[in-house]
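Example record used in the benchmark description.
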Amino acid sequence: MCEILESDLKKSLASDNPWWNNGSDPLTVGLRQRAYFKAFKTLSLNWEVNRSVILMGPRRVGKTVMLHQLIQHALEDGFSADSILFASLDTPLYGGIAPYRLVEIFEELKPHDPHSRRLIIFDEIQYLKGWEVHLKNLTDRFPKTRFIASGSAAAALRLKSNESGAGRFTDFFLPSLSFSEYLNFKNLENDLIDQVETGSQYCYSAKDIEKLNHEFVHYLNYGNYPEAVLNQAIRKNPSRYLGRDLIDRILLRDLPSLYGIENIQELNKLFTTIAYHSGKEFSLNGLASGSGVSTHTIKRYLEYLEAAFLIMRINRIDDDGTSFVRNRQFKLHLTSPSMRTALFSSLEGEDEAMGHMTETAIFSQWSHSDIAGKLHYAKWKKGRQFREVDLVIRASYSWGRLPVETTEIKWSDRFISRPAELKGLIEFAQRNCIADTPKVTVTSRTTSGNSQFKGVEIDFVPSAVFCYRLGRTRIRRLEAEVL
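Model output (structure tokens):
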């Protein structure tokens, strides 16, 4: 077997680390920072704790860009350029090369004290077999070096991180663009959102709801990916630039290589079905009968799609807020609404799919956050009919679980004058809320306001404002935890 020449490895590393020669990272010029960068930077450059950072998230959300922005920030902060190494492990030339050997070559190319502060970054680390063992050993061997690894198979990375990196790895999730980030990237946040701060609380409202909704529809179509927001060519043809490059790469390359999947056609068909019906209720038996694939295989495929950060599963609870012993039904949402457009066609505000995609957009603001595991929907039978609540957030207490937030997600203004049609929401709130006056939220298309019905206080909020608030709040909480 022919071996790769070490001279070629050195040339490749020198090319991938231009700051060794010019003292700056040219890949960051003109690129916008994600709202998550501040928290990521603070966590990554905290030298008080000897931990490696695992940056996880789906493809095309800006992980590699954020790594380069971290390098540029470190350089501007006085960090030695010769003490920074970046290596993308999906580069064919590095295939089969142990990270420790890359570190040795780095030390040969740029002589420095290996026991002083260094920044070493391994991008797309999921392609390295046993990466968690390699990274753990490096973290222990060089306590003054901050190792940062990134990958697109979030669930798989997190599992390995927890198994082998306990006490040595810290996970950081970078989701697709939130609606608040999308508006910021387009310099529209201040023009369309009115923000009022009262103590530690923030209240948001639309300055122009029609214009905000116009941007919300654009957000659903292409706004989950930074390059699509900033590049008109991609916006005009998302199926070409996002569908083929993003989804095909995951389904045809990432998942088969990571999990040994052989029947790609089955997996692709399943994902296409989920994407088209994102936000709807599914069951293992239903998916199996519709595809001719066994329920066991469907279950594995769903786990793979979750691991690739493509979908999120929302489990069903009963009318008393308790989980079912066997969850036969569940909802599946795309983690990025724009994937639907990349596969099919763009949405318009009047399209029938807007209701479900609005729900998907709202759930996506929480994808892979700490709150994600507390998200449920409620559904139960009342006589011959079913009652349902779109969103129930549960909190854990020592004496059990209680719903703490109940929301019905609508892309319509009709319910502010017809609260009696919100039967499931009203009944659920009356039964499960421990406050004297149960409070619920109903999202609308344009209408804001408050009303009461059968002793339940209803807060009506436009879906676009509600979606903005969720994304903005998540970033504030993350910064509070890290900073």
